[in-house]
Design a protein that fits this description.
Elements (H helix, E strand, L loop, with lengths): L1 H23 L11 E6 L7 H14 L3 E6 L5 H11 L6 E4 L8 H9 L4 E4 L10 E4 L2 H15 L4 E7 L4 H17 L3 E8 L4 H14 L3 E5 L3 H14 L4 E5 L3 H9 L4 E5 L1 H16 L10 H4 L6 E5 L2 E4 L9 H13 L1
Parallel strand pairs: 1-2, 1-3, 3-4, 4-5, 5-11, 6-7, 6-8, 8-9, 9-10
Antiparallel strand pairs: 10-12
């Protein structure tokens, strides 16, 4: 009886063993030793990038890959281009890129493509380049959501202004869609001023003071990024006229201002998903042997993994949920998880 059981067990195990051997010959969702992916940004010290890179790194570690952070600390497209080009000789497996401006990156991305290095853009795009995917929250939806929130808080009637950074694609889309939404859905909301601040808190501070002086009934100010928001909120507090300041993106200072009631609110993209999906898009683009979609990629020679847009979503940040978006607390949580 024992002999029969042993034979039966062996006969059951053999097909599974054969299956395992066959599976071992197939491509696996793992990196080869030393396989490295880079993330490249401008103004590299701002807090926004940290949760993006945290989950970029998390995805890399789960697949046995290496992740590196790179860029320039300055708001300078030429210096970011240099930092991007310095990555190419290192032969990375892929680059997750936030291009400060779209067109200057077309040629460098093409060179990366020609060298077999896939590039995925995130949060800002270079749509006419050879990048294989773009991960972002929908900037138009962000601007529209901000407009709806402010208009609702003001009862659908009043005056507003915008601060902007012309030339940075994702910021331009946020401002344009904010204004368009006000015109279409809230016709009693009147745009009374626009000011270029280029992510400078001091310029934003002075701009709001000037806008309020020229427009005594100014009720709200919108800007597409967090640095200007800090200066704008300071001016609004000093003016003490109830001006509602709303921005896109958060950092600790912005969250403190929202919690204190000194800033109306913010739209915050889901940065972690940006980083995680950005890495996964790069990995698949770098390993086209893993996928075989039903399209014409074999005929055209295109990368079989290419997605025009991956939407990472966003949240509206208020006093009620502001603490959920604090980077130090999230970082501590991630470090604790890494120790377990």
């Amino acid at each position: 009886m024992k002999m029969k059981l042993a034979v039966l067990a062996a006969s059951i195990a053999l097909p599974f063993a054969a299956g395992s051997a066959l599976a071992a010959d197939k491509p696996q969702f793992r990196c080869q030793p030393g396989e490295t992916y880079y993330m490249n940004v401008m103004v590299s010290g701002i807090e926004y990038w940290q949760p993006v890179f945290e989950m970029f790194k998390q995805a890399a570690e789960q697949l046995g890959c290496k992740a590196e952070y790179s860029g320039t600390p300055e708001y300078d497209v030429t210096k970011q281009l240099t930092s991007f080009e310095q990555i190419l000789p290192r032969q990375p497996k892929g680059i997750l890129l936030h291009p400060m401006n779209a067109d200057p990156f077309i040629e460098p991305i093409q060179r990366a493509h020609d060298a077999g290095i896939p590039v995925v853009t995130f949060a800002a795009d270079s749509p006419n380049s050879a990048r294989v995917a773009y991960v972002t929250s929908d900037n138009r939806r962000e601007g529209a959501a901000a407009a709806d929130a402010i208009a609702k808080a003001m009862g659908g009637k009043g005056e507003y202004a915008v601060l902007e950074n012309p030339g940075q694609g994702n910021h331009d889309l946020r401002v344009t869609s904010f204004i368009e939404r006000m015109k279409e859905a809230h016709p009693d909301m009147k745009l009374v001023g626009r000011s270029v601040t280029n992510q400078d808190a001091n310029k934003a501070y002075q701009s709001v003071l000037s806008l309020a002086q020229a427009n005594p009934n100014l009720g709200a100010v919108f800007m597409p990024e967090a640095t200007s928001a800090i200066g704008a909120a300071q001016a609004a507090v000093e003016l003490n006229k109830g001006i509602k300041v709303m921005t896109v993106d958060v950092n600790e200072k912005v969250l403190d201002l929202i919690k204190a009631g000194d800033m109306f609110g913010a739209i915050n993209p889901n940065q972690g998903v940006q980083g995680y999906m950005g890495f996964m898009a790069l990995f698949l683009a770098a390993h086209p042997e893993l996928i075989d979609p039903m399209n014409d990629y074999k005929r055209t020679g295109a990368n079989p993994f290419a997605l025009p847009v991956i939407d990472n979503g966003f949240a509206i940040v208020t006093r009620d949920n502001a603490d959920d978006f604090r980077w130090p607390a999230y970082k501590a949580r991630r470090e604790k998880a890494a120790q377990n």
